[in-house]
Amino acid sequence: MRSKERLLSLDIFRGMTLIAMTVVNMPGDHHYTYAAVRHAEWNGWTIADLIFPFFIFIVGVAMPYSFAGRQARADSKRKLLGHILLRSAILFAVGVFMTWYYNFMSGIPRYHLANIRIFGALQRIALCYFFASILYLRLKNRGLAITATVILVLYFILLKFVPVPGQAAPVLGREGNWVQFIDLHVMPNHLFYDHWESKGWLGTFPALANMLIGLLAGVYLRSSHSGMEKVRSFLVAGNVGILLGLVWSLWFPINQNLWTSSLVVFMCGMAMVILGCCYYVADVRKITWWTKPFVIVGVNSLFLWVVAGTTDSLTNLELVKISLADGTKAPLPEVISRFFASWIGPVNGSELYAFAWMALWLGVLTVMYKKRIIVKV
Asked: Can you list the residues of the chain whose pLDDT is less than 50?
């Protein structure tokens, strides 16, 4: 099922991240969730805030393995560039479709071309993948590291020390920062909120640095160093990244909405520690009895992201609301979570629904895995 170049620990880490994303994003009742699985209001982080930076890091780690296979087949540079462009365009288009689909089905007026949301999670991944791939084909490892560092430092200087036009001083709050300023001037009618887009233009640059760090981690994993050397390097570099990110956050807070430089360093450090541990257990020690569910999810991560997300949106819409005994109507997930809540409480019931939803999709993905059906771009 897996090629020689496929890294078991990467599939495990990807699967863990997608399972966490599904559980975090799809509770039975969004009014009842644990604080740890809700995104930070602005500065700071929770478990929910780990997921997207981790996934961008994972895409970066996978790139050297993906390109190694294509280069082994002696694909021309023109063919490689064509693949990069096509894959990026498909990911971006799927992201736009998911936004359009939800808005259209729920009656939100932002589904016309004049005001549809342009950016989102998959769109950011698509843009980062495109630029990271081009840089990977053109630069050496040192050049990639320098590029990531320069992006993070310049982004810090811009947001922290340069005020936007009309502002007396730099702002890192919700209003008046460079991230908001650029999005309002470039795509004013195509934002998630009226005056804010959490995954817009400027934040894509530090997210690119996030992916480049993952890419360099993937290059190192493919190197000739011993397994234990790789584990030690990942744990040391990861803990240094966590510490550096926390120290940097004293001046430039960890903030996923702004995708601050401290967030990138901190989250990449966390990702390296977790991936290093997975690598040690699964690839070095070969202890794999526990890995199957994560691998099943990891190899079909795009399918889970898109299909589970759109299906969850559909079940929460008016057309599938269920009439209750008191005459009110509620979405199907809320009805099921209320059933769970009747014996374990509202918060636990809502979260149990999320795990049940994930278990349902794990069953679907297991059938696909056994039949060797893997959805890729």
From this structure: 1-4
Give Cβ neighbours of residue 218 (< 8 Å, ≥ 6 apart): 60, 61, 62, 63, 64, 65
Q: What pLDDT is stored for residue 376 in this prediction? A: 79
- What is the rounded CA–CA span in Å between residue 111 and residue 104? 6
Amino acid 27: pLDDT: 82
Rounded Cα distance, 213 and 254, in Å: 17
Of the candidates 313, 368, 353, the residue with the CA atom closest to the CA atom of residue 23: 353
- What confidence score (pLDDT) does residue 187 get? 78
Q: Report phi then psi at 249, rounded to 5.
A: -65, -15
HSE (side-chain half, CA atoms, 13 Å) at 149: 8
Tell me phi and psi for residue 329, to 5 degrees: -120, 150
Cα atoms in the 13 Å half-sphere on the side-chain side of 53: 32
pLDDT at 327: 66
Quote the tokens at residue 206.
């530090």
